[in-house]
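During the reporting period the student researcher (J.K.) took over the structure-prediction task from the postdoctoral fellow and processed the backlog of single-chain submissions. One of the processed entries is reproduced below for the supervisory committee.
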Amino acid sequence: MHIADVLRKTIHNPATWSKQELYDNLQAAVDVELWTIPLYLTTLYSIQGLNANNQQAYPATAKLIESVVIQEMLHLELISNLCNALGYAPQYPFPTYEEAEGIPFLKPDVPPKYAGYQVQLGPLDINQLKLFCVIELPEPAGKPDWNKQTRYNSIGELYQALEIAVSLQWKDLYVGAAANTKQQANFTDYTQKNSKGIGFSQTINSLDQALAAMQAIVKQGEGNRATEEIPPRDQPPAENPANYDPSDFDPSQSHFLKFNEILNILLLDARRWIPATYPLIPNPDKQQLAEQAQAQIQLQTGFRAFLSELQTGFNAAQPNQQMPDSFYTSMFNLQNLITAVWQTGAVPAFPTH
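J.K. obtained the following structure tokens:
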């Protein structure tokens, strides 16, 4: 079942979900996390002059966006681990970005500051930052009344529902330690670099770890209150200039706060504070069209390879709980492929099937 089918359909109390309904909503969470990654990457690499070999030299705006993308990859790992722990094989469908579809998990009461956006792939500009803020819009105070609520108002509410259903069905669905061989732990540095040694769980082998993983996802991004910083246990350590890691930039701020900070700068004085992006060619000639088409084909081929690596990596036993080198090759290659399209004067396009 596609994310739009789950998040737009009438929902009911997660305490009464069947096993299949839990699986459908787990898949929706996988789709949500995956949906954000190409969207954010496309805007990130629209910024001119980013050198992958010297990420510490990125402008602050790029560092903020990159840190969010890395956490979205972490969230995809966590929810995929939860799927496998509960006997569900996660799928990684092609994301689509169409204005007609909107954002499936859109809150109906978008604050005026963020109104007027379009759902699309695009460069760093006011539209994209409004869109990003709405995607990560904080949860209102209080909890949903699941006996009355008929749909999710945000991604955060999806995770609230999952916490209820997972808690109730864990005992029946957990595959057991011996069979739980598809867990991934590609982000253990979050724990290893934390001086208190607490961090949050990456692999999931207990209900407590399952709940901790979902809370980390919510507190870092979807669902965190606008005025709250990320709790220490759910954030990477502070940036260390001597050992720079892109995920460590501004570690206490949630996704919404990071995107809102950039939006505020754009609204204040974009010409002074925002780095230059690649210009689009409004009326490309024949040669330019050919160059754009070739770059788009290479991007689509590379993205298919990335999705294939995700599908294999989270659905096959990994003795060392790490993705193979081929996964990292396909992931890091996306920067070059996306940038190459921007350099031809076109907006990157990802395959939809």
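The committee noted the following: Residues 193-197 have pLDDT under 50 and may be disordered.
J.K. will present the remaining backlog at the next meeting.
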